[in-house]
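INTERNAL AUDIT FORM
Audit reference: QA-55
Scope: verify that the stored structure record matches its stored sequence.
Auditor: D.O.
Record contents follow.
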Amino acid sequence: MKLSVVFILITVLLDAMGIGLIVPVMPDLIQEVDGGDLATAALWGGVLSTSFAVMQFIFGPVLGGLSDRFGRRPVLLISLVVMTADYLVMAMVSSIWLLLIGRLVGGITAATQSTAAAYMADISKPEKKAANFGLIGAAFGMGFVIGPLIGGFLAEYGTRAPFYAAAILAALNAAFGWVILTETVTDRIRRPFSWSRANPVGTLRILGKLPTIGPLLLVYFLYQMAFTVYPAIWSYFGQERFGWSPAIIGLSLALFGIMLAIVQGGLMPKVLKILGERGAVIYGHGFDVAAFLALAFVTSGTIALILVPLASLAGVITPALQGIMSKAVGDDQQGELQGALTSVSALAMMISPMLMTSTFAAFSGAGAPIYLPGAPFLLSTGLILIGLAVFIRYDRTVTQ
C-alpha cells in the first residue's frame, strides 16, 4: 500500500477518533468548566455535538472547493496543524464557551474527510474507486471503535488527558504527511475557487442538477438518516429493552464498528466483483431492512448481539454510492462532490438524532400508546425503503 494512502486512512481514522476519544470525559469535563449538574452537562453535550455537525455541514464544501483550487496537500496538512492546536486549547480550557469554540473549530478541521476522499478519488482507477472508498469507510469505522476505548483508558489520568493524546496523534500525522504526501491536483484538473459553489446549498444545488447525481444524493442522505439510529438511541435502547450495562453497550458498539470496518475494508472488493456497485447498493438496502425490522421487535439481548455484526453487512452502501457518483462527475469536481457528501452526512447528523430520540421517548415512556422501544428502527426501515425505491427508479432510468 502506498504511503500516501496510509496517510489518508490515518487522517480519516483521526477524524473519527477525535469524536469518540473525548466522549468518555465530556460529562465530567463539562461539569468542571460549567459547574452544573449532570443533566445540565447533558444539555451542553447536545449543544457541543450539534455545533460540531453544523461546522462540518458548512465547511465540507469549502474545504473540498479549496482543495480543487489549491491542492489536497495544503488543505490536509493545514487542517491537521489547526486540529493539533485546537486539541491543546481544549485541554486547557476553563470556560464552557471556550470549549464550545473548540468544538466549532474541531468541526471545521474534521470536515477534511471530503478532501481525503477526493485525494483517494484522484489516485484511483474508475473501477477501483468504490473499493478504495470502502477503505476510507473502514478507517472511519475503526476510529469510532478505537477512539472511545482509548478515551476511556486515558480518562483514568484526568479529563484533559484524551485531548493531549489527540493533539499528539494529529501532530505526528501532520509531520508524516509533510514528508510523504504528494500533490494530486494538476493544472489539468485545477479549478478556480468560487464561494457560490463552496457552500452546502450552492454545492448541492449545482450537483443536484446533474441527472446522475441528484437522485443519488437523496439516497445517500436517506441512508445516513437511517444509519444514525445506532449512535442516537442504541445506548438507551439497550438499557431499556435488555437492561444492558454501559460496558455491554460499549462492547456492542465496538463489535459493530469492527464488523463495519471488515465489511468495508475487506469484503467490499469481493462484493463488487460479484454484484457490481449498483447491485451492492440494492443488496445493502435489503439487508438494512431485514436488520432494522429484526431489531425493532427483538426482545432477547443475546439475539440483538448476534444481529449487530449481521447489521454491519449493509455497510457496502456508502462506498458503492460514492463510487457511482465519483465516476459521474469530472476530475475537477472530486473535491466539490466529496464536500457535498460530507455536508449531507453532517445534515443527517443534525436532524436524525433528535428524530430518533424523540421517537424512542414517545414509545418507551409511561404515556406511550404502544410500548415499543424499537420504534426508531421502524422509522429507519421506512427511510431505507424510500431510499431503495429512489435508487431502483434511478437505476432503471440510467440503464434504459
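Auditor finding: record pair retrieved intact. The mean pLDDT is 82.
Action required: none
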